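Workshop exercise sheet. Pairs work together: one partner reads the sequence aloud, the other fills in the structure field after running the prediction. Swap roles for the next sheet.
Pair: D.N. / O.F.
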Amino acid sequence: MSIRVLVADDQSMVRAGFRMLLGGKDDIEVVAEASNGLEAIEKADRFTPDVILMDIRMPELDGLEATRRILASNGAPRVLILTTFDLDEYVYDALRAGASGFVLKDDPPEQLIAAIRTVAAGDALLSPAITKRVIKEFARAPRPTPPKELDDLSEREREVFRLIARGLSNAEIGQELYISETTVKTHVTHILQKLDLRDRVQAVVLAYQTGLFDLDAVRSSSRDDSPPP
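Structure field:
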């Protein structure tokens, strides 16, 4: 069964490029295009895509508000935000709007395709470059009190949470901890349930808003700087 994709971007050449790129994949089908936020909402309702590639800056209604309205409906698709380095301020609003992931427009084609497959499978992601900028941004922000539910996480779940916050995929987490990808998925599910989070993006936001793993970073840095035995 193909992944149904809606491409929302105000530039026709960009939409054509995505259609050409994705059209050659057996498991992906571009079912509609939209040139502005209002059109994206209408076509999301009409074509019921699994994934929406959503540009942020569009006329009539921007991608942020379009994302909020689309995700407010039942059976909402996954929204993958397309962004560029000079739009950092919008990335954090998109996080709060409920986007499932972020990729840069100049990411390699295979990375974009992998992102579509990832969010279509119910996962969420941040482009490695975006993850670094999210970490940097939230490191500067005032720190709220961590939720008490963090105490409910097991030691293993905390390890998995730390690696989620670093932007690792389930497969990469499995390799890091020497456990199966299926086991990682189970841990991720439990973490999201215990913390009442929708997806991994919210988990990353929580981790860096609260400075949850700052101490881990300090310890890791200390180990790296210590002289060999």
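Discussion prompt: The radius of gyration is 18 Å. What would you look at next?
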